[in-house]
Amino acid sequence: MSKTVLSRYLDPDVLGKMADRHIEPRGLVLGNLAGAHKSPLSGFAVEFAGHREYVWGDDPRHIDWRVYFTREKYFVKQYEMETNFVCHLVLDVSASMRYGAGRQQKLQYAAQMATALGYSIIKQQDKVSLATFDEQVHGFVPPSNSLAQIVRLTGHLDEIDPVQKTNLPGCLTDLCGRFGRREIVMVFSDFFTNLDELEAVLQRMRYHRHEVVLFQVLHHDELEFEFEGQVKFVGLEVADEFLTQPEELREAYCAAIGRFNQRFDDICQHNRVERVLVDTSRDMGGVLVDYLNQRSLLNRGR
Description:
Rossmann fold, three-stranded antiparallel sheet, about 25% strand
């Protein structure tokens, strides 16, 4: 793969700002490698977790003799194991994500964000996968913590052709069946979908103990509607065109997008899902650093 493809999705300035930040799971994780994160399983290493009564076959070296002398029963010490985590990056590649130009295009911005986070996670020796979808799931790069995974991710991203409509709830349901349990799922989309159907999928993900992070990637135009003069709006997922005076629509549009985002936020809070609203006019390095700093503060406050 050419360096041009890598540079399209990996910005050295963004990676430099994220260099000393780590991504920690919010809860206990399940993995198959020794790593740096707490596992819900107990073993005989790392950090003390509690006692259980001794049973035949246990290693006598783990007997807590102080407890024996006070209770005259044998108990063994248990410790929390550490493990790796798996993070699934899920990217909406539908036609609505084409809105915007250059680095502020929603799809390009979201793809770069996902790649930067994936790179940081792999540098921690944790695993990353990538799934892309529109009306259906188009590609799935299985989890890996090899640096070669970045080449696979960017190669897949470079093949995207965003021309189809979105079926966000259906595709997330499909992907949920492919994931394990207690993993991190990061979804990058504008989330212009049926929110009731989306909530049902989020509840299923939370039932499987996934930590879910939704990056709602919107162009500044979609947030503020700062158009002037006569403007023709052309649908990206529907074949409609509207010639309008934006000044006459701005108040109603801002009220509608405000209600939508408030409903979306309420659903996320109710289901303990993290929502991150992203304006593509903002510096990506600053957006990611702010997110990781807030995440670190919340983790320390648990």
